């Protein structure tokens, strides 16, 4: 029997949903079908706490207008401690995962105790918000967390700004993360759903800074792909 799951994009930008669809379908296990929902009443991108809460409220109102009972699980595709994750969990006993939380748990599973994970994200405000989110999720100031570096671009700008500017901004954030943590960094999380197709730039920068062998050994964690593979297993538990 086909397992039907729903990916929720809490912002209104349909081009981001298209990118999510490509990543999820490439990572989708056999016997699983994902549908995709765009919150057309939400902000174009989620850039801070006010737009995060706005997107949660409008998205939940929109989801109430459709039948979601046919879905066995849900992915909230915003890289933040997004309130929609907890709201959905109060309304259903089916698994609900956020790509932010999935990326953190993935790092903890794959990294040796001596290694750290860091996050490369968008606007500068996410340095504080994601750090707070990691500490809240783990319940501690984890020694495994290497911090957040940002590009200064919004999620929309990642795909609308000139390609070379995007490349320079991402490379700069990755370099700062690597240089601040030296040989301790073992994984870099792509800290925005809109970064799902930009992992090549991250990998190239790791190799440039660390060399071919060590740079190729850094795990690059796409929370969207990780969630697409994790959720079916949670449903079947």
Automatic annotation (TrEMBL):
- Which Gene Ontology molecular function entries are recorded, alphabetically? amino-acid racemase activity
Query: Signal peptide location in the record?
Result: none
- Please name the InterPro entries in this protein's record: Asp/Glu/hydantoin_racemase (IPR015942), Hydantoin_racemase-like (IPR052186), Iso_Racemase_Enz_sf (IPR053714)
Any Pfam family the entry gives = Asp_Glu_race
Transmembrane portions of the chain: none
* Similarity remark: Belongs to the HyuE racemase family.
**What is this protein's record name?**
Hydantoin racemase
């Amino acid at each position: 029997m086909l397992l039907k799951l729903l990916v929720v994009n809490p912002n209104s930008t349909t081009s981001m949903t298209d990118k999510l669809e490509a990543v999820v379908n490439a990572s989708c296990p056999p016997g699983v079908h994902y549908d995709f929902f765009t919150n057309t009443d939400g902000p174009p991108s989620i850039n801070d706490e006010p737009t995060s809460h706005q997107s949660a409220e409008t998205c939940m109102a929109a989801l109430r207008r459709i039948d979601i009972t046919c879905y066995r699980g849900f992915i909230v595709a915003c890289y933040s401690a997004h309130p929609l994750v907890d709201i959905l969990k109060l309304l259903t006993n089916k698994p609900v995962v956020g790509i932010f939380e999935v990326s953190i748990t993935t790092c903890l599973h794959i990294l040796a105790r001596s290694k750290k994970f860091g996050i490369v994200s968008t606007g500068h405000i996410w340095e504080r918000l994601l750090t707070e989110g990691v500490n809240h999720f783990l319940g501690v100031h984890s020694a495994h967390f290497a911090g957040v570096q940002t590009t200064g671009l919004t999620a929309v700008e990642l795909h609308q700004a000139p390609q070379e500017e995007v490349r320079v901004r991402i490379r700069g954030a990755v370099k700062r993360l690597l240089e601040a943590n030296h040989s301790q960094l073992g994984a870099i999380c792509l800290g925005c759903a809109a970064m799902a197709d930009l992992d090549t730039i991250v990998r190239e920068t790791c190799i440039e800074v660390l060399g071919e062998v060590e740079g190729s050994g850094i795990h690059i964690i796409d929370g969207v792909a990780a969630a697409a593979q994790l959720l079916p297993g949670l449903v079947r538990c």
